[in-house]
Design goal:
Helices cover 38% and strands 12% of the residues. The chain has 8 helices and 6 strands. Helix 4 packs across helix 8.
Length: 226
């Protein structure tokens, strides 16, 4: 199965009843500012360069962001902070993302998430994370990245599970980098951690533009020398 086939599977997934009810309910009631939008209201597939050396793993679609637009980090405040950084680092052809047909292209980078459906209060539960994990595992197998950037602790913990990273030495911290052992195909990769570009982090100054820029510079450096 290629990425296109995998994404077709993701889009029709209904494994998590709570998330199905929430995402479809949001898409029906809508937010006043987006009453004219035809909400996506389905699981959000990955997006980007299928031959990427950098894979970015976020948390989950925003109720009125990706759940509305159908594209990762598109249409909400997190994307407003993320895409300009990707553009400055040369991973994107434009600094903004507003819809699936806005001609945005990613170069050498693929965006995905630990959970593909918008969760209530942005909090997927453990069972939902586990049900979605095979999709992420398959993306990693298909893309074979050199670097995985984890945006936030939840994404990091999901990668810890996938790679069986045990022990206190594997801790989430902004800028932390871990070199992982080769997979069965002999591919080595690096795990790079960043705070999530949520408003909770960006508006409080916990994550600044310069801090974020250093993450993408590091991701590029690691991808070219891994």
């Amino acid at each position: 199965m290629d990425l296109e086939g995998l994404n077709r599977q993701i889009i029709v997934c209904r494994r998590c009843p709570r998330l199905v009810e929430w995402r479809e309910g949001v898409a029906t009631t809508k937010r006043k500012a987006y009453k004219g939008w035809d909400y996506w209201g389905r699981p959000v597939p990955g997006f980007g360069d299928a031959r990427a050396r950098v894979l970015v793993v976020g948390l989950a679609p925003g109720a009125h962001g990706s759940n509305r637009t159908g594209r990762q980090f598109t249409g909400d405040a997190s994307g407003t902070f993320l895409y300009p950084a990707l553009y400055r680092a040369g991973f994107s052809n434009q600094p903004d993302s507003v819809s699936r047909d806005d001609r945005l292209r990613l170069h050498g980078l693929y965006l995905t998430a630990a959970v593909r459906c918008a969760p209530p209060d942005n909090k997927p539960n453990a069972a939902e994370l586990s049900r979605c994990q095979p999709y992420l595992e398959r993306e990693i197998e298909l893309i074979r990245p050199k670097v995985i950037v984890c945006l936030g602790r939840i994404a990091f913990e999901r990668l810890r599970r996938i790679y069986s990273l045990r022990g206190a030495k594997y801790r989430f911290a902004h800028g932390a980098t871990y070199r992982l052992r080769p997979d069965p195909s002999g591919v080595e990769l690096c795990l790079l951690c960043s705070y999530h570009p949520s408003q909770q982090n960006t508006l409080t100054g916990r994550l600044t533009a310069s801090m974020f820029d250093r993450i993408w510079a590091k991701a590029r450096e690691l991808s070219e020398h891994a």
